[in-house]
Amino acid sequence: MSRRLWRWHRLLGVLAALPVIFLAVTGVLISASDSLGWSRAPVYSAWLGRLYHLQPTIPEQGYAAGEHWLSLRDGALLFDQQAINRCDTLGGALMQGDDIAVLCDQRLLWLDAQGGLLEVQRGLPAAPRQLGQAAAGDAPLALRAAQATYLYDVSSGLWAPASSSLSVHWAQPSPLPEALHHALQVHSPIPGISRERVLLDLHSGRLGGKAGVWLVTATGLFMCLLAITGLISWWRIWRRRRS
Fold this sequence. Notes:
The chain is α+β, with helices and mostly antiparallel strands. The protein contains six helices and 14 strands. It has helices at 2-31, 33-36, 46-51, 178-187, 195-204, 209-242, and strands spanning 61-65, 68-73, 76-79, 82-86, 90-96, 99-104, 107-111, 117-121, 130-134, 141-144, 149-153, 158-161, 168-170, 174-175. The radius of gyration is 30 Å and the shape is rod-shaped. InterPro entries: PepSY-ass_TM. This is PepSY-associated TM helix domain-containing protein.
């Protein structure tokens, strides 16, 4: 009887070995997720997105500024592939010398050629809608607002109403280049999913659906049986030695 019990004990140990190691590793990583910065770290994986039935939001259009593109994704302003600021409404982007002017919500963002933030200009005319460039003179910035069109005075930093006859080249969105669109598909995060969430779902088996949950449940039962058969074997050996 003891040999048969020992065989069962070894069989259960072999069956549970790999799942137990997996659960132990994921458990350690979960406990360290805050220190690793994984509780908020996004996940970039197309196949994981399919498992969660979630697909990243990919912008289809944007504004060209020199060799770069400005677009929106889930409330973030993208400079090519990089999220650089919060933004819900994008009203245009234009080159101004070596810098880039971006109309974002109720603000005018000034960026350098690498997408670094130089300045945030607030206090724009009410309800700014579109950014443009005057066709005459030194091609100053133009702003289409709810009531009128305004020109930006660089020397004073103020916006002045423009003549109704002023010719303006308004920034217009265009389809993103195919290469950039593909890169955004590959490198866009899964919305609402962090690395910690993936670890938790792996540890619980939820990421594998019902089969994953059953596997984790079976592993837990195997561990209970291992503990029980181990205790019984130890108790029999102890009793034999006592007698």
